[in-house]
């Protein structure tokens, strides 16, 4: 039986699955996102300069928003088969020229230009487009402990003896594998219905991009970030094209996460308690829980998970 790392029983929906589905995927109402993922014995985001996990001055780990967007884009392209403006190995200059250096044509051709926005490559006649969905940097809730493991690579290599004759030999090189022991990360973001107006963003498109957010880590799994799991969180629907009675920080504060008393170094989600603060939300607002469970995501996001679609 599947057990949500964030217990659903602590977070009652108070909505039927049909109502929740409509709220989450309604492109005409603005939304705030508060999601959680954790990482154990891995490196969710490496700094290319230090070759280690990115750390803030307070020793909390963070994952930059462009990396989050990349995870989502890869699901949209590789699993759902949609063309993207910003895609691995693509030349943006050529794509912009193919669309006649027209921002409207770029948006019509590529869904990620509508959802995440884009910056033109050269032509000043093409204006920058702001994304309807904006994800923030994800940060760990507490300082993390960093480790660096050494690895050895041994491979065959031709060598020569003192007389210049070729002999079989071995080439041994050393390397490092960085990581963190454990971190619980909070990821926040917003969807602006006002920004999305006139862009033909459909419920199906919203479901596809939220699906990318939840399955992105599994799709991009590697030896360095094999221990990242998307746990779940909340979609706060404001019930209006503008943002309503709670700003994003209010929504963040509505999901209280507390480290168990006496613990200094968390090692799993079981070391935390999750609690909803507000029993009643401002008028028109709705709070919808989205778990890490595939079954619940099928109901809310309208995505059918089959073996052929498995990332």
Walk me through this protein's architecture:
The structure is a single chain. The protein has 311 residues and is α+β, with helices and mostly antiparallel strands. The chain has one domain. 25% of the residues lie in helices and 31% in strands. Strands 1, 4, 7, 8, 9, 10, 11 and 14 form an eight-stranded antiparallel beta sheet that branches. It has a two-stranded antiparallel sheet with strand order 2-3. The longest helix has 17 residues, at 203-219. The two termini are 21 Å apart. Residues 1-14 and 305-311 have low confidence and may be disordered.
Please specify the SSE layout and strand pairing.
Elements lengths: L16 H9 L5 E12 L3 E2 L4 E2 L8 E2 L1 H14 L13 H7 L4 H7 L1 H5 L1 E2 L10 E2 L2 E3 L2 E3 L5 E15 L5 E26 L1 H4 L6 H17 L8 E10 L10 H7 E5 L12 E5 L9 E6 L2 H8 L10
Antiparallel strand pairs: 1-10, 1-11, 2-3, 4-8, 5-6, 7-10, 8-10, 9-10, 11-14, 12-13
Helix pairs in contact: 2-7
Number of domains: 1
Approximately how much helix is present in the residues?
25-40%
Instruction: Give me the strand/helix succession.
Output: HEEEEHHHHEEEEEEHHEHEEEH
The termini sit apart by 21 Å
Report the oligomer: single chain
Largest sheet: 8 strands, antiparallel
Number of helices: 9
Beta-strand fraction estimate: 25-35%
């Amino acid at each position: 039986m599947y057990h949500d790392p964030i217990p659903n029983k602590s977070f009652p929906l108070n909505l039927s699955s049909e109502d929740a589905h409509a709220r989450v995927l309604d492109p005409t109402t603005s939304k705030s996102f508060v999601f959680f993922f954790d990482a154990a014995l891995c490196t969710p985001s490496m700094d290319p300069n230090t070759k280690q996990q990115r750390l803030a001055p307070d020793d909390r780990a963070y994952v930059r928003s462009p990396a989050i967007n990349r995870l989502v884009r890869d699901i949209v392209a590789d699993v759902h088969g949609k063309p993207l403006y910003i895609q691995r190995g693509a030349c943006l200059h050529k794509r912009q020229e193919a669309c006649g250096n027209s921002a409207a044509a770029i948006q019509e051709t590529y869904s990620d230009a509508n959802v995440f926005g884009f910056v033109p490559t050269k032509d000043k006649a093409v204006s920058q487009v702001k994304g309807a969905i904006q994800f923030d940097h994800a940060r760990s809730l507490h300082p993390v402990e960093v480790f660096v493991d050494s690895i050895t690579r041994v491979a065959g290599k031709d060598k020569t003896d003192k007389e210049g004759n070729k002999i079989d030999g071995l080439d041994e090189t050393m390397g490092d594998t960085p990581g963190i022991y454990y971190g619980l990360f909070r990821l926040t973001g917003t969807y602006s219905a006002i920004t999305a107006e006139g862009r033909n963003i459909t419920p199906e498109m919203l479901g596809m991009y939220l699906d990318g957010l939840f399955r992105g880590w599994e799709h991009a799994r590697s030896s360095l970030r094999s221990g990242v799991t998307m746990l779940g969180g909340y979609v706060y629907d404001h019930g209006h094209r503008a943002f309503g009675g709670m700003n994003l920080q209010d929504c963040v504060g509505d999901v209280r996460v507390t480290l168990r008393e006496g613990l200094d170094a968390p090692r799993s989600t079981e070391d935390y308690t999750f609690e909803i603060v507000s029993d009643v939300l401002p008028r028109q607002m709705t709070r919808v829980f989205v778990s890490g469970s595939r079954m619940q995501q099928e109901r809310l996001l309208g995505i059918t998970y089959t073996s052929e679609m498995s990332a």
